[in-house]
Here is the input.
Amino acid sequence: MTHGPIDPRHRANMNMLASAIDETLNGKVKPKRLGFVMLVAEFGQIDNGRVNYISNGTRADMITMMKEFIARAEGRYAEGGTA
Here is the structure.
């Protein structure tokens, strides 16, 4: 069993991609203006499988962002409301 947000088989590629995305979105600006989340899973293994996670923000902020996205995608989000 693996632990942590990224399976060791995907760690190097995900870190490289995350660095490139963050550099593209934010450059060297501090504090960062744009946040992102990357989820990587093997097709056929998403249900009851491993979903690998990486982002450039705090875990709490990114969870809030993902909840809002899911609520919007499912049609449950009302402007000014919460997910």
